[in-house]
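Build the 3D complex.
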Amino acid sequence: MPGRNFLFIPGPTNIPDRINRAMHLAQEDMRAPDLPNFTKPLYEDMKKVFKTTTGRVFIFPASGTGGWEAGIANTLSPGDKVLMSGFGHFSNLWIDMCQRWGLNVQALEVDWGEGVPVERYAEILKADRKHEIKGVFATQNETATGVASDVKAVRKALDDASHPALLFVDGVSSVASMDFRMDEWCVDVCVSGSQKGLMLPTGLGIICMSQKAMEAAKTAKLPRCFFDIADQIKSNDMGFFPYTPPMNLLRGLRESLNILFEEGLENVFARHHRYAEATRAAVKAWGLKLVAKEPKWYSDTISAVFVPEGFNGTEVVRTAYRRYNLCLSIGLAKVAGKIFRIGHLGDMNELMLLAALSGAEMAMRDIGIKVEAGSGVAAAQEYLRASAKPSVEEARKI
Amino acid sequence: MPGRNFLFIPGPTNIPDRINRAMHLAQEDMRAPDLPNFTKPLYEDMKKVFKTTTGRVFIFPASGTGGWEAGIANTLSPGDKVLMSGFGHFSNLWIDMCQRWGLNVQALEVDWGEGVPVERYAEILKADRKHEIKGVFATQNETATGVASDVKAVRKALDDASHPALLFVDGVSSVASMDFRMDEWCVDVCVSGSQKGLMLPTGLGIICMSQKAMEAAKTAKLPRCFFDIADQIKSNDMGFFPYTPPMNLLRGLRESLNILFEEGLENVFARHHRYAEATRAAVKAWGLKLVAKEPKWYSDTISAVFVPEGFNGTEVVRTAYRRYNLCLSIGLAKVAGKIFRIGHLGDMNELMLLAALSGAEMAMRDIGIKVEAGSGVAAAQEYLRASAKPSVEEARKI
Amino acid sequence: MPGRNFLFIPGPTNIPDRINRAMHLAQEDMRAPDLPNFTKPLYEDMKKVFKTTTGRVFIFPASGTGGWEAGIANTLSPGDKVLMSGFGHFSNLWIDMCQRWGLNVQALEVDWGEGVPVERYAEILKADRKHEIKGVFATQNETATGVASDVKAVRKALDDASHPALLFVDGVSSVASMDFRMDEWCVDVCVSGSQKGLMLPTGLGIICMSQKAMEAAKTAKLPRCFFDIADQIKSNDMGFFPYTPPMNLLRGLRESLNILFEEGLENVFARHHRYAEATRAAVKAWGLKLVAKEPKWYSDTISAVFVPEGFNGTEVVRTAYRRYNLCLSIGLAKVAGKIFRIGHLGDMNELMLLAALSGAEMAMRDIGIKVEAGSGVAAAQEYLRASAKPSVEEARKI
Amino acid sequence: MPGRNFLFIPGPTNIPDRINRAMHLAQEDMRAPDLPNFTKPLYEDMKKVFKTTTGRVFIFPASGTGGWEAGIANTLSPGDKVLMSGFGHFSNLWIDMCQRWGLNVQALEVDWGEGVPVERYAEILKADRKHEIKGVFATQNETATGVASDVKAVRKALDDASHPALLFVDGVSSVASMDFRMDEWCVDVCVSGSQKGLMLPTGLGIICMSQKAMEAAKTAKLPRCFFDIADQIKSNDMGFFPYTPPMNLLRGLRESLNILFEEGLENVFARHHRYAEATRAAVKAWGLKLVAKEPKWYSDTISAVFVPEGFNGTEVVRTAYRRYNLCLSIGLAKVAGKIFRIGHLGDMNELMLLAALSGAEMAMRDIGIKVEAGSGVAAAQEYLRASAKPSVEEARKI
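Done.
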């Protein structure tokens, strides 16, 4: 198939050539005496991604799901009560995992299209005078619906109730793409993975833990061995690992951080916001609706779009893939068939996004959805032109 | 700069990942006894690209310009009269080269926007009863103006005049993208390079010579050594080279041929035609004009577009590059500033092209050219949708 | 540092260029409808590596340690009695993991330099009339001491006692390098990883399970979620995954299997045996002793060598690394300082091995160990020459 | 074939991974307005490799042979008298090229095993009162025999005769591996290529010209177009190229220079000398003789070794290739069959060299040559140990 595939799923995301090159490597001795010269600054720099100076980062050869497990298994004990909310496929899977690990899960059901129900959380936390709730969970970005939640507000709910529960955040599809502030928001466990904002292949489950969470680990009784941070701490402190580390991905992670820091994290977030806005302009021009019910729920990394009644979102996705080499995402679970999703995160620029919007437009028209040819692209173009850097004037002078 | 550059110049063209991987190699011994197992089928397969069974292919570590030189130096003698025509920057450079090599060049000047003046060639050849003209030159695709010429008709002009001159074709930006038929059109010397339809980095000057041209080489008196086919023949016959060969590019060329043959040459040509048509639909929707004056001159690998009076085509190109990471080409020589060019050849697909058209559209609007946002993209989309494979029906069933 | 590092640790092993190229990839959609065309044959072919037709392979984004955990967690319940033996750092770590997961471990201590104590196993199993032992564990290759064990004999011990316990094999540093026969030896759970015989980067924990083990999984009560084979089965059956799979490594695994099958598994095993014999010839010529006490314990993937009294094996390793860019392995735990280890597995050939033996020789001489310069290399050369393919006669005729 | 090929030919040489990665690139626009930011420092830094501040470097998409041609064609006129000397296959080919380009070549025949006959040059130059000789040629390193010549002494011969002829040096297999001083030795044209000391794939013909040579170019009458420095100067001055440049190789060249400068040119030369000495120690231990007759002719990049009477050097090379995946070089022309050659230049370290010496030793023994197993390796080891960095003492402290 000639030409490049256009990958617009919410992860894995496009890998910059620099990262692919950085991982094209001879294998190396993970016990080489000079390895700490590489690993120690890497772990230190990872903290900047989470905006923490007091927390600690742990990296497992796993996926984001493994990261979820590591976060839970290290900090909680069988039967512990946790407060969670489900409003999409992935927040529901997290609930499911907690249940399978024997936690006592209070799971709030929320309409898909909304996010963490902060006010209900606040009430429940206030009512929990005995502090039976040990963990409060928030999915910062629900990939299945394109809904972002307000983590800072969850922290406020905890603080307002003077509640000591640990705050768990699923940042898999937000960290390094949307603003996340470990220290400022007093998050205790944030989970991420390599294949989203970090622009790497899948294979790293990454968690960041607060001092409070690490203290909790000392008494947490869920069984763990592969994911035990105690082993990590002992080895990582010396710049090494408790078992063979995924060196290729770690070398790639180094390049990923180089790239992120060169652009600047705030610029990265602004860029993601810009692409999300352009996508939303296109969706509006198409006359379609997002799953996210209100602007406050809008995600900057993925947009989930309802297809009109009588059409099948999965068919849009399949047509785009088979006819235009474009990967969009289908709807999962409750919204299967009703939506398609456009992931707009990672290593991306204006023309890549416009290509994807073109492809979505064409695929919709192909199956009979009445959107005007070029309409979404034009709307996105106009938004992007107005906000592109350098300005037209500056570009003239360069 | 995040995301991928969009490369829409008429060469170098986008390199497929498969080719980049094939060239990521340890170096090898160019005198290894089993090397002919690789080189002999490679040279044999290259003949298919030129559609020849009787001709012979020579590959030099050089560029297309080196290929031009190899073609001339091996077949002509100082003072030989040659018939040429200039209708763009590159056909003029070829004329210049022949003059610098001491040939007696009869160069017909042709309006830019037209191609080889076949009728004038026919008259001149008929008039040349003494067969003083030793070579007749045709640029199959003038990259500077996006003009294709009718090589078959040049052959007919020679045949009609029963003229024995050698027929030279510049196929640098056409071979492997547009139909070329060495044997059927009785071409004697066709010149190509690695960085266009063959989708490789720059570094190979490739010529295909007929038996008649190789016979001429025996008495041709232009000095040559690096480009001497006699040395090549002696070594190539045994599967080796007269001096160190560019093995990385040759390994890449193997993968290039694999890719071309998997798609099928005719499908490759049809694909290029389709992208050219889509581009022309966009240009029309923008209300702009091509440099190519009539459909018969339309190139399937590059479109040169006039900007409206009062605007500078180079500014479109610079704006596209600086604001949207899109590489278009500027106008050269006589049309500098008046045009911009969109190369649409090589490893390309629909969405890549639509991205480039989006970027061109935005850059034009940025500098004040009155084209409607999305108009060109919409026109191209509609053309591409109508001709995409698989059909919508088939895509449903896959 | 000029030139290549010589990597002679027991894993990660050298990555063939073909595999590195196969992993230098654009990311892809792990839900693409045609993905099963890739995944299904891959899983099927992995069974050949384990020599099973009735078992099933599971691949986790993890390390070999994660594979250990997956094997245990899916098949056993808290308090289950298991029979294990420790005779090196890694067999001891496996014991430790089982204890941490709450199993009732009967761990036999064995002299380092010997392997699984089959006769003691046989007695214990015969004595266990009530079949309280649920799992019997055998480390096929103890990486820390260079000791191989007889898995077939462990199976015989089980059979002779008509004992129904599951047979667990740690094949991390043996599978795809030394012969392993899942079906013939009726192994129930075999654990491997990507970074040894499979010549990939670290990042895949691979287990192969018998039907009996999968049946046991239905009632096994150890908690599991990330490593739960039930989720894998459901998704893998359709050619997909329960969570984001490490596609790069899976694409690399495909190439690894291509390479292994092209050479032929039996040839791969013979090659490893040959390098091991050459290494042992060198050790003998140096006048040194292996940790493995008898030929029946000799490992074909790693040799652990005692340094003479008064010298420090770790210093050999450090000197080799710092002066000659050679990675050997240090002694761990009980044999720290007393030995150095030479890993000779994976993508390797005669001259690579001779280079490593040269480096070991030089490093030993550097710190004052009295080995004769060139002695080990000469002994290895003579062994390798006698067994090299093609024969001298054949090489003449090629 | 498992494991890496050992490439010990005198070029192409081993490519460092860093360079291969640097060339694994998307194609780029060679007319991008910011390209000069890359090209200008590159050309400036290339001057450091030639140790010139007053000269100028030209880079052609070609091979070293193309570089030879560029050097001649730009500076000489038909019939010009040149003083040359032949003492191996490559110095003879240079003579042949000059003859084919119509120069009046006075070629001194020299015994193979010696180099440029400086005293005869001195006499001839003194005798040439009319300064009919326009060019004096010196092959700094004759690859076919492993003979280095004294360029500085040739300059002295010119100076002593107050002779104005241009001094041409073939530095293809010496530049960036052995000391070369353009300015200090007043060299006028030095020719090199990419695939030797620069550790790149074949594909760049590189020449460095003095101001005097560039002045000569203005009146030199040999025909040239592809290799014309006048076109290069015009474009290079602006940071661009007269025709499509081989950007991948230029990006690789950038990384090559980074690597060379990081190590330091003098350290690079010292390293090459060290490997050459170790090789010579091995040859002596084998009881064999070099083609180079005296130490003053010894090359630091390649050693040519006579096999004993009754044996065929080509058979050593073929056996090494077929049985041990080792590429040595055969004897060419006059010494075909009598010798084999070991290239020891480029990206190389101690163990790589010892591996090659092991392989040569084994191949010789295979065909019956009486060298003692391990003898050459031992001698080389001892030399290398004595001179390795860091010292044993330092290595202990790191």
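The mean pLDDT of chain D is 98.
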